[in-house]
Amino acid sequence: MQTTLKKKVIAILESQEYPRLFDLWPENRKILRLLISLTYDKKSILAWRAIEGVGILSALIAKDDPNTVRNLVGRLLWMIRDESGGIGWSSPEMLGEIVRNNPVLCSDIAPIIVSFNEEEPLLPGILWAFGRVGEMNKELMLPSVEDILPFLDHPSSLIRGLTVWALGKTVETRSIAKRKAMTSDSGSLIIYDNSRLIETTVGRIASIALNP
């Protein structure tokens, strides 16, 4: 049964027909746990599809059962705080997708995601979540801009690139001069954007963010 469900879920993720996940929900309440289990390997596009799927499924569930979504949020926050060694896996990204798809129900979670920015292993996911939420609802993320601006000078090209990308998605204006100067940054990174894993540079992201 579990193997069959997993195959169905993977097929939906591969086709990106995310609302079909809700068709499985009434008979398979463990589907959220299954989706979470598919998010660990972020070198795989399937993991990113699972992250997106969590967000879209959560919005469909929330229409009739908002408590289940809030409980899921609580579980993901617990996974971040858990000291057992997992350090939250893809929890920031999933939380970001939940906020993106439930901006009213989960508006209070936006600043909480950013508050974990001192945890270096979580930082890429936090920045990605920042951009994803900001793209749809910049008002939720603009109050936290000051918390991520310092990462424009981070030694890691992944972090610099994600910060530029996140600020661009949020249409943030205070850092425009800095971002213009970063268009020559040749540091490389791989980012999930527009349903694809893209190998690019910080400079290319900065240029696109300035001229969307």
Description:
The chain contains 13 helices and 2 strands. The protein has helices at residues 2-15, 21-24, 31-37, 45-62, 66-81, 91-101, 109-114, 123-136, 138-141, 145-148, 157-169, 176-181, 202-210; strands at 188-193, 196-201. Strands 1-2 form a two-stranded antiparallel sheet. A hairpin with a 2-residue loop joins strand 1 and strand 2 (196-201). The model has no long low-confidence stretch (mean pLDDT 94).
Q: What's a quick, concise take on this entry?
A:
This protein has helices at 2-15, 21-24, 31-37, 45-62, 66-81, 91-101, 109-114, 123-136, 138-141, 145-148, 157-169, 176-181, 202-210; strands at 188-193, 196-201.
Please count the beta strands (DSSP E, at least 2 residues each): 2
Major sheet:
2 strands, antiparallel
Mean pLDDT: 94
Helix content, binned percent: 55-70%
List the helices and strands and how they pair.
Blueprint: H1 2-15, H2 21-24, H3 31-37, H4 45-62, H5 66-81, H6 91-101, H7 109-114, H8 123-136, H9 138-141, H10 145-148, H11 157-169, H12 176-181, E1 188-193, E2 196-201, H13 202-210
Antiparallel strand pairs: 1-2
Helix pairs in contact: 4-5, 4-6, 5-6, 6-8, 8-11, 11-13
Keywords, please?
mainly alpha; 212 residues; two-stranded antiparallel ribbon; 2 strands
